[in-house]
Amino acid sequence: MSTKRWILIAAVLGSGIVFLDSTVVNVALPKIGRDLPRLFLGVLEGQSYVYNAYLLTLSALLILAGAVNDFYGRKRTFLLGLVGFGATSVLCGFAPNMELLVLFRVLQGATGALLVPGSLALITANFSGEEQGRAFGTWAGASGATTILGPLIGGVLVDTISWRAAFFINVPLVAVAAWATWKNVPESREEGKSPSFDWIGAAIVALSVGGLAFGTIYGQQRAWRDPLGYLILAAGIVATAALPWWMMRAKHPLIPLDLFRSRNFTVTNISTLLIYGALYVTFYYLGLFQQGTLGYTAAAAGAAGIPGSIFLIFFSPRFGSLAAKYGPRVFMAVGPVIMALGVLWFARVPSSSTPWKLEPNHVSTYLPPLSYFIDFLPGNIIFGIGIMIMVAPLTTALMTSVPVRHSGLGSAINNAISRVGPQLAGALIFVFLTASFYAYLAPHLPGVDVSSESFRSTVSPLNTPSDLKLTAVVRDASTTAFHLAMLIGSGLLLAGAVVNAVGIRNKQPRPQEAELGEKEPVSATPA
């Protein structure tokens, strides 16, 4: 097998285990809550922290990790991340109580942050031209595969072995990725790097991203009734406002503001905010609607989206090559438009749509009802075609818009935006959906105070109660709220398409190439 193929395997596995762990563990949460003793955390609170502690530290440290990749060496940092992720996965698997599991998940998220931007930086430093575009497409397809297969893998491991196996599964994957990296990846780092690392800037970035992410999650979990959520969010906003001030003041800033002089880099990050915001809104509320309103089982809701996702898994490399050959602009403009059409299809699903009760122990439930083929399958396929066209070209546009020496940092900034931005958008949209839901209920439930705390604690959007007197009305209200979410999601996708069509330029030279008229040097030594 060629050296470059092993480099691609290392990059795909390194980022894949990070994405896989966020979905596999999510399925294991119910059994973790039942099996693990707790010192002071409640069951639901502990489950929430097990899931969110990983995502929060991962998000908060992404930009710092990207800069570390470029400054200290991409191979060295990637190996450190792999070893750390493997070690913390073992610690999670042997955790004796809920509180220690949360702590180990914090550490696991921190080590995972080294891998996501590092994987794309390895591809950028070792591939070029159409070969690079194809590699980005393979990376995007593999990321999609881990997201799709994660719940299935997690369910099988939890049901047949133990929830602890959801963590131990990382160990052999880490071993293969570490061997491939050690034997095949040449070391590369920022050429002519600054003499000191901007740790103050790193702290401000961590406070910014972490505060925005944690404040949003905490506030939404408590329906914005706890002032602590506002305080954390405010701290994140203050840190975000302070960030450009520090970057202009620092002698060797963590994030050089010159990065944003690249038109494609700036435009790609703006479109990422819009498009990934749409993805978050669409899939979050689609899952809630299918299970909480229509009555789909969890397995059926997961299986319902597989047909459309197949396009992303198998055809992303092809579109990555095409974007590298012809330029990413047309793909980044057309893809979101097709995605928006798929989301609009969901906006017509009626509240009477028949649920799919997929149960592994009953063969008769394997086939979905006819309504699935009418209400959801066409939208999934249309959406899948659109995301297949868009994802790899977006990655190509991003990674070719920054100097190679800042490839880790550029990838990290985009990843941070794709994680935190959608959460902020989702929290804002949740307010509109909640208002729409209760506004619909008020005239249809005379004599019921829909604004009371007791009512809202039992009846919430996209979650139909068991009280038969309320079911029909609440299903209609939830369906109306779901339709609004899909309209908002399609609007965000169309806005992203417009941004890409107007802003992206094909064949834009790397920033340093434009200044010096030659390809910038990259320090590389054999492994």
What is the CATH class of the largest domain? Mainly Alpha
Instruction: Give the biggest sheet.
Output: 2 strands, antiparallel
- Would you identify the CATH architecture of the largest domain? Up-down Bundle
In which range does the helix fraction lie?
Answer: over 70%
- Helix vs. strand class: mainly alpha
Overview of the molecule:
- By secondary structure, this protein is an all-alpha fold.
- It folds into two domains: 1-186, Growth Hormone, Chain: A; 258-512, Up-down Bundle (Growth Hormone, Chain: A), CATH 1.20.1250.
- Helix content is 76%, strand content 1%.
- It has helices spanning 3-35, 43-72, 74-93, 98-113, 116-126, 129-160, 165-168, 170-184, 199-221, 227-249, 263-294, 298-304, 306-326, 329-346, 370-375, 377-399, 407-444, 453-458, 468-503, 511-516; strands at residues 187-189, 523-525.
- The chain has a two-stranded antiparallel ribbon with strand order 1-2.
- The chain starts with a helix and ends with a strand.
- Mean pLDDT is 82; it is low at 513-527.
Concise synopsis of the structure shown:
This protein has 20 helices and two strands.
Helix-strand layout with pairing:
Blueprint: H1 3-35, H2 43-72, H3 74-93, H4 98-113, H5 116-126, H6 129-160, H7 165-168, H8 170-184, E1 187-189, H9 199-221, H10 227-249, H11 263-294, H12 298-304, H13 306-326, H14 329-346, H15 370-375, H16 377-399, H17 407-444, H18 453-458, H19 468-503, H20 511-516, E2 523-525
Antiparallel strand pairs: 1-2
Helix pairs in contact: 1-2, 1-4, 1-5, 1-6, 1-8, 2-3, 2-4, 2-5, 2-9, 2-17, 3-4, 3-5, 3-8, 5-6, 5-17, 6-13, 6-16, 9-10, 9-17, 11-16, 11-17, 11-19, 13-16, 14-16, 14-19, 17-19
